[in-house]
Amino acid sequence: MVTVAFPVSCEVAFDYLADPHNRADWQSSLARVEDVDGEPRVGQTWTDVTKPGLRPRMETTELDRPRRWTERGTWWRVTATLTLEFAATPTGCDVTATFEINPLLRRPALWAVRSDLRHAAARLAA
């Protein structure tokens, strides 16, 4: 689990992070996002196109604006789940990420999630 402070409200952070169209702006491993199925909602799907060329299929599995959002990604036999929880603070909000994946990949994945969330917070501060 990692927590990153955002200098914006829960609603602003939630809307930015939950929209797949914004992903390549803040997620370092992505080249682009393709096949986005409509607006953010439970059941929305898209494909993350990573810089190394992997193409996990993604799906929003939980959306409780502006409190909690969960996605599931599947690539070959690997399935990963990312949950973001949003909590108001006096200066904006805290975003807490919980990540489930094969235990061997968990530590590097959490490091990447922390880095990406810090990048997103900086983009929203600008």
TrEMBL record:
**One Pfam family of this chain:** Polyketide_cyc2
Name of this protein: SRPBCC family protein
- InterPro entries according to UniProt: Polyketide_cyclase/dehydratase (IPR019587), START-like_dom_sf (IPR023393)
UniProt xrefs under Gene3D superfamilies: 3.30.530.20
> What domain of life does the UniProt record list for this protein's source?
Bacteria
